[in-house]
Specification:
12% strand; kinase; globular; alpha/beta; binds ligand Z5A; 47% helix; Rossmann fold
């Protein structure tokens, strides 16, 4: 069997340059004759994605649990096609993924409180368990003042300073856990010029995009837990 494609996730705070870097990486891969495609979450084109889009533009209101599950459902809509493309040897660059899902929802706080979480962290993680796991997650870390000076900041619901600060804290926790479970999590200083950021990203992915021999892992799939459950049924 041939090698499978690499699954590369680009994550980060708002206006950290994710879409810019993802598009540049795609061009570079295509120029190097690597079969690759770019996907993005939320995918605002699907039926679920349209509900998410309307919420983000503050054109509709949804319960916080509901919008969290819709973001996750939006990823599950594409999960099997992601697996299929990777199997066919195509590399996928993914602009935001489940890590954004947890970071934005788990950073919400109860009305009237300064820090008490509205949604439990483990609850936020659970609907994404079992999605295709990335071979690398690249976290673009931008400082507040730099992000605010960039085009388009503040147009959508979560683009506020206090929200972004809490989101960053949750991203740090997610990264530590992802690394702890054997995942690759690379934090990149996204205050730098686009070319400099791209150089760091390229260095991190250039071997992966030659193709991967190993199986595609599942996100937060606890194999020890699975073994214990199997043992119960033996
Ligand atoms: N969300 C969620 O809650 N749950 C989920 O499960 C998911 C998402 C998946 C919309 O996401 C919101 O959904 C988001 C998280 C939440 N919250 N908010 N707010 P989105 O991905 O659709 O958001 P976006 O509109 O694409 O914005 P963005 O992703 O935050 O921006 P970006 O992609 O990181 O940045 P960019 O578009 O590449 O660049 C922004 C500007 O900066 C642009 O003018 C660039 O030319 C400029 N730029 C980029 N890089 C640089 C550098 N290095 N130097 C100078 N200027 C630069
Ligand atoms: Mg973007």
């Amino acid at each position: 069997m041939g090698k499978r494609g690499a699954f590369i996730v680009i994550e980060g705070l708002d206006k950290s340059g994710k879409s810019t870097q993802a598009a540049t990486l795609l061009r570079r891969l295509q120029d190097s004759q690597v079969s690759a495609k770019l996907i993005k979450f939320p995918d605002r084109t699907t039926t679920i994605g349209k509900m998410v889009d309307s919420y983000l533009r503050s054109e509709s209101e949804l319960d916080d649990h509901v919008i969290h599950l819709l973001f996750s459902a939006n990823r599950w809509e594409l999960a099997s096609s992601i697996e299929e493309s990777l199997k066919q040897g195509e590399t996928i660059i993914c602009d935001r993924y489940a890590f954004s899902g947890i970071a934005f929802s788990a950073s919400k706080i109860r009305p009237g409180s300064h820090s008490y979480p509205l949604l439990d962290y483990a609850w936020c993680r659970s609907p994404d368990i079992g999605l295709p796991a990335p071979d690398i997650a690249i976290m673009l870390d931008v400082s507040q003042d730099v992000a605010q000076a960039r085009g388009g900041y503040g147009e959508e619901r979560y683009e506020k300073e206090d929200v972004q600060r809490r989101v960053r804290d949750v991203f740090v926790r997610i990264g530590e856990e992802f690394e702890g479970s054997g995942g690759k999590w690379l934090v990149v200083d996204a205050d730098e010029k686009p070319d400099e950021v791209q150089t760091v990203i390229w260095d991190a992915v250039k071997d992966l995009v030659k193709g991967i021999e190993g199986p595609l892992e599942k996100l937060w799939d606890d194999k020890r837990e699975a073994k214990n459950v199997d043992a119960l049924y033996m």
